[in-house]
Amino acid sequence: MKIIQITDTHLMPRGTELHGLNPCERLEACIASIKEFHADAEMCIITGDLTDQGLRESYEDFRKIIQQLPMPFHPLIGNHDHRKIFSEVFPEVPLDEYGFVQQMLETPLGRFLLLDTVEHGKHWGSYCEKRGAWLRSQLETAGSKAVYLFMHHPPFDIGIPALDRISLVQKGAFSEVVKPHRDQIRHLFFGHIHRPLSGSWLGIPMSSLRAMNHQVQLDLTNAVLKGNFEPPAYCVVLFRDDALIVHTHDFMDSSPKFDMACSPVQDWAVRKPHP
Fold this sequence. Notes:
Blueprint: E1 2-6, H1 23-37, E2 43-47, H2 56-66, E3 73-76, H3 83-89, E4 103-107, E5 110-114, H4 129-140, E6 147-151, H5 161-164, H6 171-178, E7 185-190, E8 197-201, E9 204-208, E10 215-216, E11 227-228, E12 234-239, E13 244-249, H7 264-271
Parallel strand pairs: 1-2, 2-3, 5-6, 6-7, 7-9
Antiparallel strand pairs: 1-12, 4-5, 8-9, 10-11, 12-13
Helix pairs in contact: 1-2, 4-6
C-alpha cells in the first residue's frame, strides 16, 4: 500500500505571494507531480496549515487544487488554519463529538488516527482533555490492529528552540495517553516544522517533511525563527508486511539527471568486487 503526505501548504488568496513565492502555484506543481508519478497511491493526507491566514478564499482555492488528486484526500488543520471556516468549506470532513477536526480511518493496514492540535489564535499546539479522551478511546478500541498517528504539531521538542516554543503544550498528558499503546503505534506523521526529520519518540518511529512554500533553517541555538527557500517536498509512504518506508521527494528539483549505470562508480564495482 502507498500513501502520500503533504504538509504546510500555506495558501494565500490566488495571485498573492508569501515570502516572495506563490503558494498556489507550488501546490499545483506538487499535485501535478503526484498525478504523474504516484497516481496509484491509496490516499493523500495533508498534515495541517492548509492556508496561511485562515481565509475562506484560500480554503476555496485549496479545495479546487487538492481535488485534482486522483485519490481520496484527508486534510488536517494546523495553527495557521481556522477550524470553523475550514469546516464550512469542507463539510464532509468529520468532526468528533466535541467539534474538533478528528477522525479515524479504518484501512487494511490498521487504524489511521487524524488529530486536531489547534488552539485558536495561538501558534503552539494544544491537546485538551476532550481530545485526549477521544484519542484514548480510539486506541483502546483498536484491538490488535496497528495504529498510525497523523497530526500537525509534534508532541515533543525537536532541538530547534524557535520551534520547540510552539510545539504541543500538553506533552506530558499526550504522552500518558499514548504510552500504554506505544507497541501498537507503528508510526507518527506530523508537519509544522517545515523540515525533514525522522527518529523515534517513546520508541515510536516518527517523521516530518518540508513545507510547500518556505522552510525553517536548522538552527539549534537561536530562539528566533529563521526561514529559507530549500525545495518543497512531499512524502511517498510505502507499507509492507515487514517494513514502513518513507521517501521524501523534492518535486521541484531541477538539477541535471543522469544514468548511473555508466558512471565510474559502476565501473569501480566491476573492477574491484567485494571479497
